[in-house]
Amino acid sequence: MAAIYSGIYLKLKSAKTSWEDKLKLARFAWISHQCVLPNKEQVLLDWVTQALVSNYNKKHELEDEVVEKLWAYLDNVIHSKRLQDLLKSGKTVGLSFSVAEIINKRLSEAYSEKTQQNIGTVLSCSSGILSTPSLSIIYTAKCELLVDLLSKLSKLACQQLASDDAVGSQLFNVLHLTFAQYLLIQRQQANPNRVFGRLTSHLLQPCLLLRHLLTVRSWTQADDKHVCQHLSREIRSQIETLLQAGLFQPELFSSYKEELLSEQESQEKKKGAWKTLLLPVNTVQTKLGSDLCEPALHGAVVAGSVSLLYKLFLDSYCKAENYLVCFHMLSRLFGCLRLSDLQEEGKSDLLCPVDWSVELFALEQLLSLVLSNDIYNVASDRIRHKEVQFGFYRKLAQLLLTHSQASIPAWFRCLKLLMSLNHLIVEPDLDDLVSSAWIDAEASEPRTKKPQEVLISTIFHIYSKLRQFPRLFEEVLTVICRPAVDELRPPVFSAGLTAKLRECLLELPPNQILDILCLFVEKCQTLIIPAVEGSVDMALKLMSVCSVLHAFLFNMRSLDDVTPSPVVLRTQRLMANIQKGIILPLMELLQAPRREGEKSELWLRKASDAALLLVYTWVEVDALFGVSCSKYVSPAAETAVTEPAARHWGVSAFLPGVKDQSWRRVMELASSFASTSKYCLELLTLQKVKMMLMQTEADLQALQHAAAFILESGRSTMSRGESVPWDGDISAITELSYPTAHWHLVMSNLTILLPYISLKDVEYIAKVLLETLMLAEAQEAATDQEPSISIAKISLGFIHSSLLPEMRVLHCAFLTHLIYQFAVVLPTATRDSVDLPLQQLSVTNIPWHEEIMASCKTVDPLEVPSENKVQKDELSLSWKTLEKVAQCIVLLAKNGCPVILKERQLQRCLDLLEIVSLLKLDSFLPSDCTRCFLVLLSLLVNTRASVSCSKLLLLKVLSTCLHLLRCLQAGRNSNSVLKVLHASDVLEAVMTSQLTACKFFTDVLTGPDWAQYVQEVQEFLENFLQMIIERRQSVKLNLEKFMSFLVSCRPDTGAAKSIDWKNWNPAAEQLLLTAFTTLCHVVTLHLQQLPEKKLHSVDVFCALLEPVVLQMVRTVEHGLQSSTPNQPLPVAFIPSVTTLLKADLSHPVKKDWQKEPSGFLKRPRVKLYQEFYSQILKELPCAGSNLQFLQLALQFLTVFCSVPELCPPEKETALMVVFAIKKLLSGPAITTQVIRSMEMELTEVLVQVLGNCSDEEFYAIMRLVLQGLEVRNIWQQKAKEVLSAVTLTKLLLSCPLSGDKGKAFWFASPQIITALALQTKEACQDQALISIIAIPILETVAALLRQGEGILVNPHHVSLAFSILLTVPLDHLKTEDYHGVFLGVHEVLFSIVQCHPKVLLKAAPSFLSSFHRLVVSVMHEGRQKGDRGNMDEFEMILKCAHLVERMYTYIAAEMEDFTVFSAFIVAHYVTELQKVTLHPAVKTHLTEGIYHILDLCIERDIKFLNASLPAGVRQVFKDLYNDYNHYHKAKKQGEEKYTA
């Protein structure tokens, strides 16, 4: 031994031994048990550290390769299991401080060299040292080394984030660990000044830069997911904790106060003390200086850091008595921003837009913190502090308004915050605010529009509350009357502002509103109207003023009979003044004759828009006042007697003083502009229609002319197809938004207009509606995020509404145009053939609509005698056409002459089918229902895709057709189809065409589109066959024809008389099997529902079913024989055989099938079922995650195992089925999600298996389960074996076990619980196994405890569940795993609480420990974070908090014996609450729960808690108890008072 010792030690020390040999010897010495050295581990650690230290201290220069190998050796030693075992056993092994120094030095070199390629090993060493307490002492004992390490790691992380390279996880994992270690050390430091100094000297700058880079980093796919999703948030949270605990400790507040108040209150007192006083604010400001980071990032980093530092400062020191200190901190931090430089005279605006955005966002956050913490008290600031705060905010407002930034959302938000603090801050510059933020602001982008609206809404709210609305709108008028900044000003009121104005106007006194209106009218009369001719600027001002008048008049409270008479009289004068002083002069101006060139001038266009807008507003409001207020006398009524044109509904009927001839000239001029004026003409015409309809006798001809005018007005612009979305503002209509506004008006008022629209115009509306729907998808993709109105949205909204089905004429016309579009899709060669079905169904000379018009058509009395005859002939003509088309479709299907479509045409068909699917098919009239059915049937059976077409596209078209046909069948007029078609012909045509089309699909049989298509075929056939049976008309004939057709088919080409099986087509075979299956299923179901009296019907249906079953057997057998060896069964076969078996079992003689071999269930068929069963068992374990196959296979096994005669005892069917299921569940592709998806089918199979198996087979099944639960499985890395056994246990609990089987299971239950506890302990050591094993075990234990109520009598067996709960980890889990574990633990606890309360009282400490872990966990996850993270993740945390609340509530309500522990539960809760700041939503749930526990606490418990809790926790408890008394207890006593 001495030789070994001395030899190795000497060779390691010898200069003659090469470094390669030394490293080999060192590795051998570490791992070998033969090498025995005194204190070997420490010797080897000292050797490697000394070698590295010597190299870095330049005593021995080593090659880079040798140095890297030495680091690798050190890393291997630190992470070796041998070292960990030694440390666990209590042996002392340590490192020298020089190791920490050289690690820091190596990281420093990497940072300065800007290369991080070779530091992976060093980082690994750091990680190993920091995570091992006995080694980490080299950092924790010398805090400056840990600070240095943290600084170096932060700089390296910044370097990596700033580069374009992908971000790896190693550096950030080490950084996260280092932060955690430093935070622990920092809390233990007694000297706050030293902590502050250390933090500001070494960590503040790298931490602020790191936080900024983590926040602004655009994460890519190449970046490590753990870093971007988890570590980045955790590290930012650690940085915030570090800064708060280091910079803003309670002991430092006096220093902050002295420094911040020095200039005002303490300057004289503290002049001599400045040399010794700590200057924390000055220190922080200095660190935010230019050396913080590179110049390009400096401004952004400072801006982000300032708001963070102020937030942390307020979190630490914000109390009522410290508000002035908090304000001065704000002013000092604001001084760090570049914005503050702009306040100095002579400083020019050098900030680019990006810099402005960053700076304003920081300012917004600062002001938001001031507002939310209520730092600015107006009265206190004025009385006590000489308006120091007001002065600061006033300068800020001046700065913002001097340097207007209307393109940046934060600029508006800053002004809004200043207004919220005190409106007087901005009041002196109200005109500038109105101009730059509203009237002249170019906030066209949605991201700036929203904050602009919020700002102006705030101004509205403040000035309406102060009753200073006239003052505000004086400024608005002043700004409007100034020369415009831009030639085309934006509209004054957007839709959002109009809504806010409406709210304010409803609160204002009517006289104030009238003041504003009079002000605008007067200014318009005196300043604008005289100068508008020829002036574009004045025309724009006129438009702005008229839009304000429109907004006020339309949104103010209407006059009514309770309105004071002075207000009514003043309103009358105002209306008369508008009419005489503005409208009539403008009409005079517009009717003046002009040359053609002058008519297109901009001023004239704007003047026309303004005039017509005001005319429409005046007419509408005048009519409303006249209807709602009996005291109101309209100016129109005063002159109505003298105007004979009123009787003919001319313009003077509603606009006195304007002659018809003058009005026609104005209309001619306004109609030439596709803008506001033209739209207002349509609105005026619509108003005329409404006024006419209010009369006792309506002028039908005038109504028809008015409706035609509205439609004709926009026809030319609609035909161009060019439009943009419209925001709903009448004054903002342009040439491109006019079509949208026009279409909106037409569709919104169609219920009024439709009765007076000609059939030609109805067809025009239907045509436009269809065209806009066809373009809707592309337009919606572009405008879906916009709140504005588009033509596509209008048309889609109309189609989705219930209006179209009620407008039957339009409905019919729309269908006709839709069918015509289908006909247009056909190739040119066939399009002109009038015999084709689609051409015949869309011809316009057949009166499709007459069926609708018959009941409502107004006819001249002279035509009455011949009406019935004509109508009858016309109706019969449409039905004759439908019958002819139906026969044509059937004939074409039989002759096999399809139309061949290219891919583009096929896609167009699919788009049109999507439009058909938007219609409410159930609302069609019989003729339209039949037409639609024939169109879809024709597409299905008479069209084919060309060879080059996409097969998936063709499948989608066919599936959609079948789906729509099924929807029509389900409608109330589905029987109308059978007036023109025989049911069997429909079925035969569909199946013939689909069997023929199947030759295209042989290579897509495994995809989801094929499965969807087969499903649609099955559902169509099922619905149609059920309809045939339910109608009870020619049932036997129709079924016989269809059955004979199916029996004669062969799945090769679909031909009926083929006997050869050579050209076997697997796609057609699956389709034919689907048809057989559906037919068998429908008939079998009908047989089961027939009453016993109808034996004749039973025999008839059985006779019909016999040939189908025989043919189906033959098809299945051939399919099984011809299927490729070692390939899985086609999925379509499984439901077919299942249905076949059900059909056999449904026959009345099924009970005697063994006694009568000639019975319905033939011997060869029994053999088929058993062979199929064997095949299923063979394929089941190999199915992987093919859910469709698994569900269908398990459904077959359920039916098969329900027939004991098919499962002879010698075959051990039950054991074989369970073994196959176990093998399936232990497959590599099976996950817990897949198991949940087929849990119902698995349970149904086991219910049948266990119900029919013998006791011996059940005992064998139990042995199989217990073998899977053995702990050696997990030791042998067989996690899926354990999962299968756990799942089987859970499934067994879902089955009714009686007699000896039940006894056997519950006899083994203690063994099962023990095994589950051991499995959990092993699984939780590997995080990957938590979701695979731990969560299913928790679910199984919960089910076992619930089912074992009254059976598990031994308390020890129930208590074993607690060992499982205390083993499962609740931290450092993925989101989905966390929720699964949390829910599982809660359900186990709840099962014990509900079902085993006696055990609970004996094991109360274990229960409290388990439940306390849940509470701590949800508090940790639900704490407030800088970044809220994923919304789904937060919703999951809320659900967990709700579960905790539920448990608290249940304990308080149901467990009286648990009262003694209530004080301990509350103590646990407040102790944890003191450590975190909970998110309000999470806190609400937890607080509600703990209130119920406080209900159990008696006065002695409260005293005990007040006496025993530590000081900080006691304060938390007092706050909680005060809230409990104030909110919960008072509410509870109030409820008890009124409870019987």
If you had to describe this structure to a student in words, what would you say it looks like?
The protein contains 71 helices and two strands. It has 1540 residues and is mainly α. Helix 20 packs parallel to helix 22, helix 31 packs parallel to helix 33 and helix 55 crosses helix 60. The C terminus is likely disordered.
Structural class: mainly alpha
Which sequence of strands runs across the widest sheet?
1-2
Q: Please bin the fraction of helical residues.
A: over 70%
Strand percentage, roughly? under 5%
Molecular shape: globular
Give start-end ranges of low-pLDDT stretches. 266-276, 640-647, 781-785, 855-873, 1052-1062, 1148-1160, 1534-1540
Q: State the end-to-end CA separation.
A: 91 Å
Mean pLDDT score: 82
What characteristics describe this protein?
single chain; 1540 residues; mainly alpha; two-stranded parallel ribbon; 71 helices; 2 strands; globular
Short description:
This protein is an all-alpha fold. It contains 71 helices and two strands.
